[in-house]
Amino acid sequence: MSSWLVVLPAALVLFLVLRTFVVEAFRIPSSSMERTLLVGDFLLVNKWVYGAQVPFTRTRLPALRTPRHNDVVVFDWPVDPAKAFVKRLVGLPGDTLSMMQGVLRRNGTPLRESYAFRGVATGGVYDTILDARDSWGPLVVPPRHLFVLGDNRANSLDSRYWGFVPDSLLRGAPWFVYYSFTPDSTERAPWLTRIRWDRLGTTVR
């Protein structure tokens, strides 16, 4: 009995340290990142890649690297930091961005975005059904801020609607899909009967 009194607190401390500074689970609730990420995907998020934030402070641990164009990132929503979003990073500080008829330009160059597509607006837990903003800009990303878009441009609430993301709100980068199922309201337990085996272990790019 006495050994459990030592093991359980130690395991709890280890879990909290890992979740705070190393890795965190994240569930995809909407279609805003299809076809890269699907509703029903469960991810492990690498929190040390950009430097995890020390709780209750503004201090961040040393980062493995800085954010890059096209990174898929998890961050606290600037409008309500209690909610976390996942989007693709398309603009870094100093970039000039614009979009014309759905074609994104960065620093004057049209981008070939193989990951982006125009799906059908269906809404979701975090994303609101909004008309796709296909033409805007130019705008310049300010220092210490980022510009993010969902891969599913027709059904994504992103920087087109609420602006830039302070880099201090970055949580990390999705690592891989550790579990995935097809949501189905007609079945009692789709998380058991509708598992997408082909997505398990898929890295996020």
UniProtKB/TrEMBL annotation:
GO terms for cellular component: membrane. The active site is at 32, 87. It catalyses: Cleavage of hydrophobic, N-terminal signal or leader sequences from secreted and periplasmic proteins. SUPFAM superfamilies: LexA/Signal peptidase (SSF51306). One of its GO terms (molecular function) is signal peptidase activity. Residues 3-178 form the Peptidase S26 domain. It is found in: Membrane. Belongs to the peptidase S26 family. This is Signal peptidase I. It comes from Gemmatimonas phototrophica. The lineage of its organism: Bacteria, Pseudomonadati, Gemmatimonadota, Gemmatimonadia, Gemmatimonadales.
